[in-house]
Structure formats: structure tokens, C-alpha cells
């Protein structure tokens, strides 16, 4: 069983869509199996992270902006792929470091997330974007 | 077929559990298929790495501690999520950089690890922890 | 259905093998399913990245060489695992940061890559290497 999730982003940050994923699994009727999510872009990521305290999400964004500064930053003056804006190549680098696909077992009809885990689209671009994530359930 | 592995950690480091995974696959009787491991936490990771020379594991821990220093380090003074201890937010960041799930094909009744590959829980917290990893075998 | 891809590398960089993967999926006859790729080494990675502009690949290599310099670099003087050459332990670290496995849904007989996505072996060693990637298709 397959679906495609559409997630609209408005700037860098983490956009949770755990409920949409849970609804898809519930509708599938699968009692056990494997859910895989795959993002069809190279400038955003799929991340399972803590969804309890928003300060975790804030600090994640801040950390990765320090690890991979925008092209305007003098530390990044060596970048050559700059034609698509100062946040484009850094977005590709973040999408290499962070996951493009994630697989979560289904137990008793639900994904086996831990108590504090949520599923997020991690957007690395500053502009408004419409992102596509394919969901697939295997037996 | 599904199982849950329990791994107790005593501080930051890599804890190998390749043999437990191989036993699970052998008991399943699967000749071919796909094994997926998923860790139900956001402050530790699942990593396939070299299991021949312990100095590799030592250097991995040392590297990630330099890449993501504890909150006590002046480089990390911008962190906001610090209520759960100086190693908590850095553990979330490491768990974003390192894998939460890994999938390994099963060939001839065994996981297709290369000669030097082992499967590790990579613990990012300093306290004693009891970690849960779900294992799933698809056809 | 399973296969093994062999990719020869000649130094650090990204080696695209999207066409080989697409041929394998086409030959399998699978209309829908899940393709998983797993690399049997701990000093190279599997990466889905932009395959349109070669400058993206150039900058990715340059970034990771800055993030994880060779052992000859004074920033890395703390490394202990240095017997196998100055690029060996950095290659292990890069292989921890970048993916060892990736899973891509199959839709309408083809992998669900986005318009700009290609599949690459990311080689982290300088010497000529022969790399093995296992491909597996689940229902």
C-alpha cells in the first residue's frame, strides 16, 4: 500500500506530520509490517525526533545552521554552487547529513514510535515549498 | 516476523549486538528478505560500523563529542534546551546526524554484512540507559 | 528479488549508478514495492542527491573534507586509528554521518525518485576500490 504526503513549508524548520502517517497506517489495516517514508527532494529531510519540547526543534535548526552556514557566511566562501541562492547548496549538504528515507516497523496496527518520537519534514530552504513524501507499507 | 532487542548502556559509546541480530534472523528461518532495525529513542542511534579494531569505535565517540560538544562547552552557549542535563540536547543532535533506522538484506539465511561490518547501538547519554530496538523481517 | 552492484571508484567523490538500479527494478517486473540498497563497507556511503549540476557533487566532497579532515591535518591530531592511512579513520567517520542503507518505494514499475534525484556511491577513500552494494526488492 502506498500514498504520497504533501507538506507545505514556510522557511527552515521541522514540520511534524506524525498524525498523517498514523492515519495512513490505520486506513491500510496492516496489523504488522514495515512503513517506509521517502522524500523526493534533495534540499529537505525526513527526521524522527522528540516532539515533546519545542526547544529541541529550535536548537536542531540552530545547530545545523551553524554546522552548514549559508553561502553569505565567509566560512563558506569556497562554495561553487551558488546560482540558486545562498541557502541552496547548504540545503543539499544538510540533506546529505540528515535522512532521505526512514523505515519504522508496524506493531499491533500502529508504527512503533517511542514515547517521545514524532515524524518531521525538516525543511532546509527559506522560500515557501511544497514537498512530496512517498509512504509505503510492506508486509 | 518481529522482535524487540533490549540493550543496556553505561555511558557514551558503541555497544555491539550483531550476534543478537544474527540469532533473530536464524530463528526466523528466512532464507532471503530484508531486516530493518529501528531505535525507539531520540538520544541514541543505530550504526553499522567496523567491528575489527576498537580504536575505530574510540575515535568515532571522540569525533562526535567534538562535532557536538556538551552544553557546558562555551561553543554551545546558544543552546536553549538544557533542562535535562548538558548531554541531553547534544544527544538529540547526534541522533539527528546518525541513523535511527537501518535496513540490511538477508542472503542465504544471514544478513548481508561485509567482512568488517558490525551492528551497534551508539549511546549518546552519559547515564545508564535501557534502550529498545525493534527488529522486523520483510520478505 | 536481490542483486549485487559492483562499483569501482578511483578516489573520493560521488559515482552515480541510478541507471543500473533502474535496470534492476525494470527486470524484476515489480509494479510496486520497496527497493533497498545496502553498502557492504564502512568507508563509503550510499547517497541520494541532485544529479543535475556537477558543482553540487564537487561542493559535497569539499564540505565533507572540511568537516572531517584527513589525519595529516593538525585539527585531527587526536585520532588514534591511523595505521591504515590518513584517509582511513576520516572515511569511517564520513560513513557514520552519511547513509549505509537507503529505501526507495517503487511506483508504476519505477523507483519514486524526484526529478532531480540520482543514486550515488560516495567514496571516502583515495585509493582505487571495488565496492559492493546489495539491492533488494520487497513487495
From TrEMBL, chains A, B, C:
It comes from Hirschia litorea. InterPro entries: UPF0047_YjbQ-like (IPR001602), YjbQ-like_sf (IPR035917). Belongs to the UPF0047 family. It holds the Pfam family YjbQ. This is Secondary thiamine-phosphate synthase enzyme YjbQ. SUPFAM superfamilies: YjbQ-like. It comes from the Bacteria.
Amino acid at each position: 500500500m502506498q500514498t504520497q504526503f504533501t507538506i507545505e513549508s514556510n522557511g527552515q524548520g521541522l514540520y511534524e506530520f506524525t498524525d498523517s502517517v498514523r492515519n495512513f497506517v490505520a486506513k491500510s489495516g496492516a496489523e504488522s509490517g514495515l512503513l517506509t517514508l521517502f522524500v523526493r527532494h534533495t534540499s529537505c529531510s525526513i527526521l524522527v525526533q522528540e516532539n515533546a519540547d519545542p526547544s529541541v526543534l529550535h536548537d536542531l535548526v540552530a545547530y545545523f545552521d551553524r554546522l552548514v552556514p549559508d553561502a553569505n557566511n565567509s566560512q563558506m566562501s569556497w562554495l561553487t554552487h551558488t546560482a540558486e541562492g545562498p541557502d541552496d547548496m547548504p540545503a543539499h549538504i544538510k540533506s546529505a547529513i540528515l535522512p532521505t528515507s526512514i523505515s519504522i516497523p508496524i506493531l499491533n496496527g500502529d508504527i512503533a514510535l517511542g514515547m517521545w518520537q514524532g515524524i518531521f519534514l525538516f525543511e532546509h530552504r527559506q522560500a515557501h515549498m511544497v514537498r512530496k513524501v512517498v509512504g509505503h507499507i510492506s508486509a
